[in-house]
Each structure stands twice: as C-alpha cells, then as structure tokens.
Amino acid sequence: MVRLQTTLDTWKTIRQDTIRAVEDMPAGDFDFRPADGLMTFREIARHILNAGHAMTGILLDGTNDMSGPGFRDLLKKHSTEAPLDVAQLELAAALRQAVEERIGQLSAQDAAFFAGEITRFDGMRLTRLEMLQTIKEHELTHRSQLFMYLRLKGVVPPTTRRREAAAKAASQGQTRT
CA 134, 20, 79, 3 torsion: positive or negative? Predict the structure, then answer.
C-alpha cells in the first residue's frame, strides 16, 4: 500500500536533490546541452518545475479527466511564470517554493480526495494518489538527466556525495546525525 505522507516526503526529498543539482551546476554551464536535440540543463530544470506544479494544480482543482483536448490549456493555467531564461538561483528558489506550496495544499486534502479516480492524459484510469506517484516518478526521471549532465561537467551529484559521506562516516566508526 502506498501512503500519502510517504509519497509527499519522498517527493520533497527528490525535489531537494533537484534543487541541489540546479545550485551545483557551474553557472557557465547552465545552458549545457550534451547533444543536438536534447534539452539544456536549464530547460530540464524548468520543465521539472512547470510539470510538477501544473499537474498537481490540475489535481487540486478537482479535474477528473485530463484526456481531453483542453489538457494543454490546463497545463498552461497551472504552470509557473518562470521565464525561459530564468536565472539559476531564481530557478532553485522557485523549485523550493513550489514544492512547499503544493505539499501544503496536498496535505490538506482528505483520504477521499486521493482515493478518487481520474482519467490521465493518456486515457489510463487511476487514483489521485497514483497520479501523484506518477508526478513524482516524472521528476525522478528528469532529475536523473540533471545528474548525468552534472557528471558530464565533472560535478558529483548530491545523492552520490551523501552516500559517499555516509560510507566514510561508517568506515570511521561514526554515526549519522
């Protein structure tokens, strides 16, 4: 069974690592694109912000069917207003603010809200909690892209740094606090 609080907590952790990735990318490489046809680092980070904010906004609005032709209009309605050339630290701050706002709003919903079924944009029927899990998985996928871009620029992603620090502390007989 998937629990709401666990879903929200893990989404927040994923978002915190997304924010760290945005902050860690060297400023001169914020528009890095490893190959033609791929999004830049900035574009991916901005997409994470907009997609997560828009999709949760649609859920909170009580929309039950995302499969119709008006879906793109719903996305635009709930998207952030971050400009295409949003600055690095502004984007990090927007990512932080957006997830705090949405987690607060989602936490205020009752169990019946999350048990209610909706039709996703691809026609699949699922509960709102399952849709929230899908939104989290979407961010996790794109966060992985950000991490790969960091690696290509010689930057160790935040999750790896955390794991390495824990291993070092364990090898020195220290406990985590």
Answer: positive
Q: Which residues contact 64 (CB under 8 A, 6 or more apart)?
A: 116, 117, 118, 119
What's the rounded Cα separation, in Å, for the pair 66 and 110?
21
Kind plus residue range of the DSSP H or E element containing 41: helix 41-60
pLDDT tens digits along 27-79:
999 999 999 999 999 999 999 999 999 999 999 999 999 998 998 999 999 99
Cα distance between residue 13 and residue 5, in whole Å: 12
| C-alpha span between 75 and 89 (Å, rounded) | 24
In a domain, 176, yes or no: no
Q: Quickly tell me which residue has 């630290």 as its tokens.
A: 89
Angle, CA 49 vertex, CA 47 and CA 50 arms, to 5°:
65
User: Which residue is it, tokens 């609080």?
Assistant: 5
Domain count, the chain: 1
Give the separation between CA 45 and CA 57, rounded to whole angstroms. Answer: 18
8 in a structural domain? yes
Residue 176, both tokens: 């985590």
